[in-house]
Structure formats: structure tokens, C-alpha cells
Design a protein that fits this description.
about 475 residues; alpha+beta; four-stranded mixed sheet; 18 helices; about 20% strand; globular
């Protein structure tokens, strides 16, 4: 293994912003800095909601220019969405946004051909109306010769090479999580041509070299390789969970909370489907067995409604508010749309016969208690459904900055919580590149390096666990 320090550009694209981070990696060092951040602003056109993919690509180029000379580039992004190319490799239109209305009612049409239990048993994916499979059934695909998921599309523009990275492909509902290959039977029955997809790539595979035109625009000296990473941002984030051994749960926190386990094999039971757990693919043959939870979106919307008050002051007021006085189901679809969040939380408490939170501190405490309770449910149910006990919960992502939520999650789960790193997706992206170039060993070796180099905070459970059981019983009665 080389003793030198190398630099890797991690392009990390979220639904509202993108950034290019630079990771500098040596055998005993891992440092991450932000080179460039840019807005990801979807556009509503007469035909529907679209991603401004050209603006995103421009942001990537600006970020690579700001990053300076690097040894490799990797791209991760949100899942399920794609661009369509014609036979000459030209983009046919801006990719459709997963929140576009075109998939309304499509799932029922799909289930008429492949019943939902059968679809889950074949693909292991939770129901979400925007899964790629439903988008493809709704899409006319006129003139399309190639389909590239968003990070693969940007990689193609950078390199001229086409591929389909596996962790993101596993969110399409067209991958068999047992074989880690395409589910040809499901695709055939639904009339989906899998020849639209470029060949599958694994994280760590070479994805081409930056084209001469890209080198000229960014000022980089070639050759600069692009490396396939865990291109679904959650796959990269889970790769950066600083765990040792197998007995851990993880919660990737931010606007959403993704709570679950890392397994060697999928859980495809009907009970798992009913509990809405998903089986997505991770690094080195692993399965990301998790549930989507409406995360800090609840608090973000309240903060926006309140005119962006100081978050630190809000959390101090919440810490002083009575614990578990009122809780709501953080996964209730009623909270999905934006607007009037404080009022909707109050209405939910009133409708369930609980005390109505009035002050900002009380509402914030209700949200954080409710999220911790949702984390507890997901971690407990994942252990039971997968028959996989855990000793610790790792919290990564933006929610690690919220010490009160981390402590409440430890209290609710009755398990220690290790919080950090905050920039998990970018770090996972960097680690896969570093491993592909010989600076890091296996997945366990990368996690051990994270443990030694990144700031982590441990929260021990405290208080009476029976209070959380009582609060959970309140929600069940609702």
C-alpha cells in the first residue's frame, strides 16, 4: 500500500444543493474540505417538474476547477431519476423530477400485472410512487436508445463512457438483490427493455478519464480518472459509518432519516414488505436494509414558518420542555407537503387527545421526541425482521449536529449512539476512490481509518426506557 497522500474530488449532489469536496487521504490521514457549493433548483415547465441538469453539470465543472489537481473524481447523488439519450448519445430532455405527478396511479397498474407482494419478493424494494420502475411505465421513451441514472449521466459527460453503477441501480426496482443483477422476469412482464441500461459497474470500477474538453475547461492536467463510487448517496454514507464488527444499526440523518442495518443477504418476507423496509445494495456484497423516515424536514419547515430563528436557542428551549408530553407519527404522509407545519403538528396532537404544544420550544421538543421514537421503531423492527441484534447505533449526516436528537435517540433505543461523521456521503465517496487506488484496504479498513481521523461523539442512554414504550403505545392507539 502506497505511503503517499492523494487527493480525490467527491461530487455529492442532493435534492436542493450540490457540492464538490476534496478528500486528502494517506495511510493514517483523511481530511475533507469543501471546494465549491452550488444550488440545485428544479424547474417547473408546462410539461411538469424537471431537474436543471445542465446547471448541475456546470456546477460540477466549476467545482472541479476550484478543487485543483486531483488523482480521481467520483460522483454520488439522489436515487431513481434518469436522463434519456438518443442513438448519438444526445440528451433528449431535462430529467423528470421524482416529485413530478406523472407516476400518480401507475403503481396500481403495475400491481395488476405483478402483484405488490410478488414484486417485493423479486426486488426487495419498498413501495415509493417515484421508484424508477413506475417512472419507466409512465414514460413514453420516444426516441430513447440509452437510459443513464443521474450520476452516470454526469459521468458520461465528463468521460464519454457509459455505465450503470450498482448501488444506484438497486433503487430502480429492477435489480434482484440476491443475484445483484437485473430482474429480467419483472422487466419483461412490465414491458421494460433492459437494453436501455448501460452495463453494470461496481463501486471502485474505473469509469473513464476526463475528456480533453473537460480538462481544458477545468484547468486540470490529464490524465484524471473518474472512479465509480457508491453513486447512491446513501450507499456512500453507509460506507462511511465508522463501525467495527457487524452488530450495529445506522441512521443517516438530514431532511430524511434512513434507519437500518447492513446485512449479507436481503430480507424478502411479506412481513418485511408490510413494515415498508427496503433492500438496497451496498459495497462488497452488502445489503442496506432500511426504512425511510420523515426526518428533520419537520423541524426545517417549522423554522421556515417561524422566520428562521436561531436554531441553538430553539434547541435550548426544547431541552427545557417536558419530555414525551406529546408525540406524533413522524412518518404520517400528512407532514410530507410544505407549509403550516407548526399548525399541522398541533392539529395532530389535538386530534389524538394529547396536550397541544404551543411554544416554539414545545413544538420543537415534540418533533425531536417523535423522531427519536421513529428511530427506535425502525431499529427495533429491523433487528426483529432480519434476526440481527445490534449493540450500538451510528448516526451520520447533518443530524449529528443536533446533540439533543442524538441523545434522545440513545434514550429511545436504549443503546449507545455514536454520532459522526457529518459529511458521511462525501467521505464514503472519497474512501471508495482511495481504495480503488490502493490507499485504503477493505470496507472495514476504511471504517477504521474514519474512526481514527474523524470527530465522533458518544451518547449513552439515560432515563426510564418505559416512558418510550408508553409513548409508543400512545401512537399505536392513535
Amino acid at each position: 500500500m502506497s505511503g503517499s497522500v492523494k487527493s480525490y474530488a467527491a461530487v455529492d449532489l442532493g435534492a436542493s444543493s450540490g457540492r464538490v469536496m476534496v478528500g486528502r487521504v494517506g495511510p493514517d490521514s483523511l481530511e475533507l474540505t469543501e471546494a465549491h457549493r452550488f444550488v440545485n433548483r428544479p424547474v417547473r415547465l408546462p410539461e411538469g417538474l424537471r431537474w436543471d441538469i445542465l446547471s448541475l453539470y456546470g456546477g460540477v465543472l466549476d467545482g472541479l476547477r476550484a478543487a485543483g489537481q486531483v488523482d480521481s473524481v467520483g460522483i454520488d447523488s439522489w436515487a431513481v431519476d434518469y436522463g434519456l439519450l438518443d442513438g448519438d448519445g444526445r440528451l433528449l430532455g431535462n430529467p423528470v423530477h421524482y416529485r413530478d405527478s406523472r407516476t400518480e396511479g401507475v403503481a396500481e397498474k403495475v400491481w395488476a400485472t405483478v402483484p405488490a407482494p410478488e414484486l417485493y419478493a423479486a426486488t426487495g424494494l419498498q413501495y415509493a410512487p417515484f421508484n424508477t420502475l413506475y417512472q419507466l411505465v409512465a414514460d413514453r421513451l420516444t426516441g430513447a436508445e440509452r437510459l443513464l441514472l443521474v450520476p452516470d449521466l454526469l459521468t458520461y459527460w465528463l468521460t464519454g463512457e457509459q455505465g450503470t453503477e450498482l448501488t444506484n441501480a438497486s433503487t430502480t426496482q429492477l435489480i434482484d438483490p440476491r443475484t445483484r443483477g437485473w430482474s429480467y422476469d419483472i422487466a419483461q412482464r412490465l414491458g421494460i427493455d433492459l437494453e436501455l441500461f448501460a452495463p453494470l459497474r461496481q463501486p471502485g470500477d474505473p469509469a473513464g478519464l476526463l475528456r480533453p474538453e473537460v480538462l481544458e475547461e477545468t484547468g486540470l492536467a490529464g490524465p484524471v480518472p473518474v472512479t465509480a463510487v457508491g453513486s447512491h448517496d446513501t450507499a456512500s454514507a453507509v460506507a462511511a459509518v465508522p463501525a467495527s464488527g457487524e452488530r450495529f444499526a445506522y441512521i443517516c440523518t438530514g431532511t430524511w432519516s434512513l434507519a437500518g442495518l447492513e446485512l449479507d443477504a436481503p430480507v424478502l418476507t411479506e412481513e418485511s414488505r408490510a413494515a415498508n423496509f427496503t433492500n438496497e445494495l451496498g459495497l462488497d456484497g452488502t445489503v442496506r436494509y432500511l426504512r425511510n423516515i420523515m426526518g428533520l424536514w419537520l423541524l426545517q419547515e417549522c423554522v421556515r414558518a417561524w422566520g428562521d430563528p436561531d436554531l441553538g436557542e430553539l434547541l435550548r428551549e426544547a431541552a427545557e420542555a417536558p419530555a414525551l408530553r406529546s408525540v406524533v407519527d413522524a412518518s404520517d404522509p400528512v407532514f410530507l407537503p410544505p407549509g403550516r407545519m407548526p399548525e399541522r403538528i398541533a392539529e395532530a396532537c389535538r386530534a389524538s387527545g394529547q396536550p397541544v404544544p404551543v411554544s416554539r420550544g414545545e413544538i420543537t421538543r415534540c418533533i425531536l421526541d417523535s423522531l427519536a421514537l421513529a428511530h427506535r421503531r425502525a431499529v427495533e423492527e429491523a433487528q426483529r425482521l432480519a434476526d440481527h441484534p445490534v449493540d450500538v447505533v451510528h448516526v451520520v449526516g447533518g443530524g449529528t449536529r443536533n446533540a439533543l436528537l442524538c441523545q434522545l435517540t440513545a434514550d429511545a433505543c436504549g443503546l449507545p449512539v455514536v454520532a459522526g461523521p457529518t459529511e458521511a456521503a462525501a467521505l464514503g465517496n472519497v474512501l471508495v476512490q482511495a481504495r480503488a487506488h490502493g490507499l485504503v484496504g477493505d470496507l472495514a479498513g476504511g471504517r477504521e481509518l474514519l474512526t481514527r481521523t474523524q470527530p465522533l461523539t458518544r451518547y449513552e442512554p439515560r432515563g426510564d426506557p418505559g416512558r418510550w414504550s408508553e409513548a409508543q403505545a400512545r401512537l399505536v392507539r392513535i
